[in-house]
Design goal:
single chain, Serum Albumin, Chain A, Domain 1, about 0% strand, mainly alpha
């Protein structure tokens, strides 16, 4: 069975002009997040990294608007930052178990 281009990592964004600044920034952030994870990177980790990258770009857009004097939805910014923090924590936790994927409880207990 052949994988879709998006699943195999060849195409990150579907129907998006990759020359657009935000698309380039999204791919850059996603690649940096994935580079912090040990190989092999799971599909779930790829999805979480993609969601975190999208949120990071959106947060940057809100910060740029705020810095240029535009009125922004502060509540949306706070929610996005909180969600990004949780996603990054999830990626970090997945990374912590990478050396012992068969027994995460044992790994957790050894760290305590």
């Amino acid at each position: 069975m052949r994988k879709a281009k998006r699943t195999n990592g060849h195409r990150v964004l579907h129907n998006v002009d990759g020359r657009y600044f935000r698309a380039r920034r999204y791919k850059e952030v996603r690649a940096k997040l994935l580079a912090t994870l040990p190989e092999p990177v799971t599909t779930i980790q790829q999805y979480v990294a993609g969601n975190a990258a999208g949120l990071q770009v959106q947060i940057e857009v809100l910060h740029e608007a705020q810095a240029s004097g535009e009125k922004i939805d502060t509540s949306a910014l706070v929610k996005a930052c909180g969600l990004l923090r949780r996603l990054l924590r999830d990626l970090s936790a997945a990374n912590a178990y990478a050396d012992d994927p068969d027994d995460p409880l044992d790994h957790y207990l050894r760290r305590k």
